[in-house]
Design a protein that fits this description.
Blueprint lengths: L1 H14 L2 E2 L3 H5 L3 H14 L4 E13 L1 H9 L2 H8 L5 E2 H4 L6 H10 L3 E4 L6 E4 L7 H10 L8 H9 L3 E13 L16 H6 L26 H15 L3 E2 L6 E3 H4 L31 H12 L14 H5 L1 E3 L4 H12 L8 E10 L11 E10 L5 H14 L5 E8 L2 E11 L4 E11 L1
Parallel strand pairs: 7-10
Antiparallel strand pairs: 1-6, 2-6, 3-5, 4-5, 8-9, 10-11, 12-13, 13-14
Helix pairs in contact: 1-3, 4-8, 5-7
């Protein structure tokens, strides 16, 4: 680009005013590349050249015009298709794809006539030879001599879609107030080194444009958390899941802990880990049958279990908390599905919502965060189905390297932690917890 800008400046120095279109044959370059060189000069140093926008009209052949240049006009083709003895009009019209236009023009030019003296009309030649003026005009335009073709003729050929008028925008270049054949780049920043060495005295600086608009502030973007939530939600819906209602941030300890087989003396139920609600402090509405079953499972166990063997207290289960996980919502939904009219039907549910922990706040821990929850209820499900579901979910996120590790959860058995390989961190990180409900 530097070589091109210098060539443009040297040409202006030698010839004065010049149109960029006239530089195309001189430099042997595309016009847009020359315009790019002009823009480069203007952006580097102001006042070196003066530019004025200009337009130039020229005529070019259309595809049909190119055919006429090679084979002759449609009317000439019709004339050549007429033998000395004449030809039926129907047969003549089959001789060329543009026979209709050619026939009309040949008739108006007086080249052919229609003879009806012998019964069926015949098309015969009216003259012995013709001069194909259309082909001559097209050749003149193709050779850049469109000035030799009358304007009325060019307008007619434009209607016939033989020629097309092209308007080309260009720039007329001339010397500016600070014209020079070499460009000296203007500095945009005054650096510490320039001040320390004094070199700034010999440099030229680009003037500030205080009227220039600043970068418009970005707005209207989706919050990153909402963006990820929307992506996760769409994946669940694609996999056939339905969204669970999760609008109850306050949950009873019964659903948040006891129904999930978390013992009442578990450390997670202390004030150090859980936010307890002061008003209303207690909940009173529980399914009686489920309440008794949960109590028995804790005290003495069910289905072969011996339970935790402690004194389970209703008062502890009644305490309201800010939910520590959305798994309590899953417990509610499973109870609802098991007791719905018409009996149990297989379901797939998911939720993405806030949960709360009494954490020490720091750069990586907040008192609230979002949990992604999913639950599948059906007959004959195995651990393999659970792993397959996770593989499908994470593959849709672009995570393909997964590992599963056994773990313990009070309310699931077997239970697994899910790990994926993070290519940026170059290590395995935990991305989830799971299990089969007891």
């Amino acid at each position: 680009m530097q070589d091109l800008t210098e060539r443009i400046l040297q040409y202006i120095d030698q010839h004065g005013t010049v149109d960029t279109l006239d530089l195309v044959p001189v430099f042997g370059l595309d016009h847009q590349k020359i315009v790019g060189g002009v823009k480069s000069i203007e952006s580097t140093v102001e006042g070196v050249i003066r530019t004025e926008q200009a337009t130039r009209k020229c005529w070019e052949l259309t595809e049909e015009g190119k055919v006429i240049l090679e084979k002759g006009s449609h009317e000439a083709a019709i004339f050549r298709a007429v033998p000395a003895e004449g030809i039926a009009q129907a047969e003549l019209m089959k001789s060329s794809p543009n026979a209709k236009v050619g026939f009309s023009k040949a008739m108006s030019n007086g080249w052919i006539l229609m003879d009806k003296s012998g019964g069926a009309p015949l098309i015969k030649r009216k003259v012995e030879t013709i001069e194909d003026a259309v082909q001559g005009h097209v050749k003149a335009v193709a050779e850049g001599r469109d000035g030799e073709v009358p304007d009325a003729v060019k307008a007619e050929y434009k209607k016939r879609k033989i020629l097309t008028e092209v308007v080309t925008k260009s720039f007329v270049l001339s010397k500016g107030a600070d014209f020079s054949t070499s460009l000296k780049k203007l500095e945009t920043d005054l650096t510490v080194e320039m001040l320390a060495t004094g070199i700034w005295k010999d440099l030229m600086f680009k003037p500030y444009n205080f009227e220039a608009l600043g970068v418009p502030p970005e707005r209207g973007h989706m919050h990153p958390l909402m963006k990820v939530r929307t992506e996760f939600r769409q994946i669940f819906l694609e996999m056939g899941f339905s969204e669970m209602p999760t609008n109850n941030f306050v949950e009873s300890s019964f659903w948040n802990f006891d129904a999930l087989y978390v013992p009442q003396q578990h450390p997670a139920r202390d004030q150090q880990d859980t936010f307890f609600v002061s008003h209303p402090r207690l909940s009173n509405k529980f399914p009686v049958a489920l309440l008794d079953a949960v109590k028995q499972s804790h005290v003495s166990g069910t289905d072969g279990s011996i339970g935790y063997r402690y004194d389970w207290k209703l008062e502890e289960a009644q305490k309201n908390v800010l939910r520590t996980h959305t798994t309590g919502v899953s417990a509610r939904m499973l109870y609802k599905v098991a007791h719905q009219p018409g009996g149990f039907k297989p379901v797939k549910y998911f939720s993405i919502d806030k949960v709360f922990r009494n954490e020490t706040l720091d750069a990586t821990h907040l008192a609230e965060f979002h949990q992604v929850e999913g639950v599948v209820a059906d007959y004959g499900l195995t651990l393999g189905d659970l792993i397959g579901t996770f593989n499908a979910f994470f593959n849709k996120l672009g995570i393909t390297e997964l590992e599963y590790k056994p773990t313990f959860n009070p309310y699931t058995e077997p239970s697994m932690e899910i790990f994926c390989f993070h290519p940026g961190l170059k290590r395995w990180i935990e991305v989830g917890n799971s299990g089969v409900f007891r």
